[in-house]
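ERR on first pass: missing label on line 2. Operator R.T. fixed the label and resubmitted. Corrected input:
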Amino acid sequence: MMLYALVRSMPADYVSLSTSSSQKITEEMRDNLRKIYGLDKGIIEGYFDWLWSALHGDLGVSLTRNRPVAEVIAEYAPVTFTVALIALILELLIAIPLGIAAARRQYSKFDYAITAFVFIGISMPIFFLAALLKKCFGPYGFSLLPISGMLTARVNYPDGMTFAKLMDYAQHLVLPITCFVVTGVGGYLRYVRTNMLDALSADYVRTARAKGLPESTVVYRHAFRNTLIPIVTILGGSLPGLFSGAAVTEGIFALEGLGNIALKASYMADIPYLMGFNMFLVVLTVIGYLITDILYAVVDPRVRLG
Amino acid sequence: MISEKDRKEQLKAIKKENARRYREYNRNKNKKVAESTYLTEMKDDSNLLEIEDLHTCFYTDIGTVRAVDGVTFNIPKGKTVGVVGESGCGKSVTSLSVMRLLQEPQGQISFGSIRFNSKDGKPVDIAKASIKAMEKIRSREISMIFQEPMTTLNPVLTIGKQIDEVLELHTDLKKNERYQKVCDLISMVGISNADRIYKMYPHELSGGMRQRIVIAMSLACDPQLIIADEPTTALDVTIQAQILELMRDLKDKISASIMLITHDLGVVAEMADIVVVMYAGRIIELGTTRDIFKDPRHPYTIGLMKSRPNMIGEDEKLYSIPGNVPNPINLPNHCYFKNRCESCIGKCNNPYPGLVSISDTHKVACWRFIEEEAK
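pass 2 clean. output:
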């Protein structure tokens, strides 16, 4: 509702934005168009109209794409999701072992190095990093990797998925994913380290040591099992983030993903798409927390019901 | 008075020194220690454990805390030694030093030796042993019962698994034999329905049951020494009595020694053969239970005895020793108890007194008795 009001309160609407460049269109024609798009109604009335049809399963038609919103989301979600999922898996693969290692060697040089790296990652603005990566690996740097788009435009691939096509996709995704990982891994790493430190100083870890268990068993079987609980919590919360993607990153690398489209949609005041997209994220948030709760039962016996 | 600036400089120097110590610790941590460096000879073969001049320090940001400062005592085979003293006097740190379970690198054994008469006939100096060697001793020869049964068990593993782990590590039993042994252990500590308990998680048990599980765990490999660090503090009185009874029975069954750490004099009187009284990181009096309870010599011990609730004079207010324990970072160079002592003499301004023998079994660290001896 907030969002609807905000987009509607923009000084220009879709009609004026899309027609502003052509001289021939009169104010009358614009009003007509507004009527067709439902933009002539007031903010409150318009919102309830949208809500009513959304409740009936109709998210409306995207103004910029001229297709049903649900269809647009379904088409572009896989791209965003693939990129974000690969990035998330990489982040976890890096964050968990490094976090544990840093916690085990608290106050060592290794620990300080990790902390420094984390802070660089967290504080690095994503557009800056993206630009830097493009410069280094793109045509003006080492010329190693393509810097934008999903596929090499000059190559004609057959319709189906072939290995060469897949590799081309992969090459295009390297830089965006690196961007995600570098900026995202810090938070997880810090989180794993903190929770691991907590767990390592817990009484049951001392008990485990008193049993004479080797250090690796103590760390992985006793301490890490308990660290999983808070990790699961933040994982569930990150599910909507997987789809919303980083609008900025997708924009910079010209990936055809949901975030990029949302960015364009908000330039053009494409209300149905923005509303539909946000509904989608809301639903994902709820699903994310549901999954978290289910995973809790897996990792924490105290939550299981007798 | 030190100025603000000097104080800051001082803190900086401490931090730097600590950082150097941590680095050194981290460097040496994974070094292999040759067996010969930690093999020793027992002074007396009837002793299971000889602690000699043990110093354990904590390097904190505001200075070095000498938590254990030159402690020497022995634990004979098959006996129970009670270690008493108020909170923060170094009892627990002594026991953790014996297990080498200090929070390292902040806490380290800085000096002294802990000789342990190992099962396989080779006495080991625990203070110098490698972590690998310690892993073999822990639980198999020395096991520990911690004070907080609520937090000492891992919340995400089943009871059975947690006991089984010890057996898996230290014995060659097969899986089903171990299952049987775990169930036996659970019933040995007086819990029925062992099969069901095996699959339960710690949060499903009461505090008393958990403490029994911890005891069962510590007995799994028939250790020679059981360190019980305030095993009954977190439990209510009826359960306390049961747990103590249980420990005494089991100790006789496997003929182990117990190092019992507590601040409950009643528990000591009931359980211990030998009593060690600690104050601010040092031993101030040591003797058989009879010596300490019937004939306490050190003013602090006398104060402790006086501050027990008296069953006869019910309406009397409980006695308490006046004053506070001195700050452990800047300990004075005289008897630490001097400022609280009611029977201070001129000699008390001299440096910290050593232990003097009063009888064969009874020793005390107080200037008043050093004088007596000199006569």
